[in-house]
Amino acid sequence: MDPDIQAHLEEVYLNDKNFSSVKSRNDPDTLPQSAMTIMDYEGHILGIVGGRGEKTENRSLNRAWSSPRQPGSTMKPIGAYAPALEYNLITYSSYIKDEPIETVIDGETRKWPKNASGSYSGANTTVQNAIQRSLNTVAVRVVQELTPQKSFDFLTNRLHLSHLVDSGSSNDMNYSALALGGCLYGATTTEMAAAYVPFGNLGHYYAPTTFVKVTDQHDEVVLEAKEPEVAMGEDTANIMNHMLQTVVTSGTGSAADFGSMPLIGKTGTTSESVDRWFVGGSPYYIAACWFGFDNPETLRASGNPALNIWKKVMEPIHEDLEDQDFPDTEMVTYRRYCTQTGLLATVNCPSTSVGWYKTNYLPACTSHEGRLASELDKPVRNPVPSNSSGGDDEDDEPSENTVTSAPAETSSAESTTTSAPETS
User: Fold this and answer.
1) pLDDT recorded at residue 21
2) For the chain, give me the number of helices (H) and strands (E)?
3) What is the spatial distance between Cα 206 and Cα 233, in angstroms, rounded to a whole number?
4) Which of 49, 111, 192, 345 would staple 349 via disulfide (CB 3.0–4.6 Å)?
5) Share of residues in the chain with pLDDT > 70 (%)
6) What is the pLDDT averaged over residues 139-162?
7) How confident is the model at residue 58 (pLDDT cuts 50, 70, 90)?
8) CA distances, 397 to each of 51, 70, 125, 197, 253 (Å)
9) Half-sphere exposure of 26 (CA within 13 A, CB side)
């Protein structure tokens, strides 16, 4: 733990003015709750708060550790894009249709999902733009290509999400859970912060811990933090980092931006706005914040309350820190791609933009044959993408077989399966 970070985190959570004024429609005396976990990129928990307001009892519910909730679109980077990038199914600029797939919902074949805007373009869009705008359609198509099994294995074996369910009449082996975060139970803020750690340290997963090591009176080590695991290639992690920076510079997470250091981030909203999330970080820290009611109900709040809390915590703790960049790798190259095909540009491509690519996977444009355009010097700061159009609505649509979150009081309560709504 970092005493200064913990103290500031608790100060923010003690002040009701830092929270949305929304109240429960079922019980006006009930306020929404929140949880937040801050970690460094070696898995050390530097600050953790499991609820708002003054702590009135010891060993009370710590939502940050014990209460999984549906993560919404914060699942997209870890359940869809990172594994697909790891297996070379996509690149930064791969073109994927912004269009729903056909799937069976309540016994009927339907087109699903829509985006938060309630519509879709039907046009090709790059993976980077889909992440920046949080497009549901593209994330689902990526997991369809990846397969739910590979997505599930990546999330549970490499990123150690422990509350996903792979069997039974209700489970998470579906596009709703794995692409859009409409899970049976979900994840805690501690799990989500740890799952994003590899994006800031070139691919290593560290089990969350509050200690480095424990010794006895003879200075013998009796307990030591686990060694890191390679969750993904450093090229995958680095490219994901660049794409997640565009969420903050010009996408759904732009309200989180502060200072001059690069930031990564991803917003999340579950069906009917029951849960709001923001997971984001600087080169120093990664933090996950959740906001919602203990007994799930729709949040009628403007903006993203979780993002607002995240910023109130993260901005001040960076005030006295020197500017840093995220770590770089020679396994990633900065190159032009053809805007007509999304493939790496040749010297004959008439229209190009720029992106980040694995040095060992450079699929060249097939419509304009010729030698690949030369590698470019990497910019000091990630530029705003030329295709930037702001974010789609922050709201997401995790609803193929939407499952409401388990109440926060328990991580094992039965959840209720509901039919899939058309909008979020």
Assistant:
1) 85
2) 10, 15
3) 15
4) 345
5) 89
6) 98
7) low
8) 26, 12, 19, 25, 17
9) 8
pLDDT (tens digit, 9 = 90+) per residue, 70-116? Answer: 999 999 999 999 999 999 999 999 999 999 999 888 889 999 999 99
Q: Take residue 44 and report the two structure tokens written for it.
A: 């050390």
C-alpha to C-alpha distance for 289 and 268, rounded to whole angstroms: 10
Residue 42, pLDDT above cutoff 70: yes
3-class SS shares of the chain: helix, strand, coil, % to 5: 30, 20, 55
b (16+ CB within 10 A) / e for 130-163: bbbbbbbbbbbbbbeebebebbbebbeebbbbeb
**Residue 135: CB partners within 8 Å, gap ≥ 6?**
98, 115, 120, 125, 129, 392
Retrieve residue 248's tokens.
């903050």
Give, for 196, the enclosing helix (H) or strand (E).
Answer: helix 189-196
Helix or strand holding residue 234 (H, E): helix 234-250
Residue that is written with structure tokens 């991580």 in the block = 411
Structure token digits, residue 242? 């660049």
Cα–Cα distances in angstroms (integers) from residue 270 to residues 26, 106, 154, in the given order: 19, 20, 22
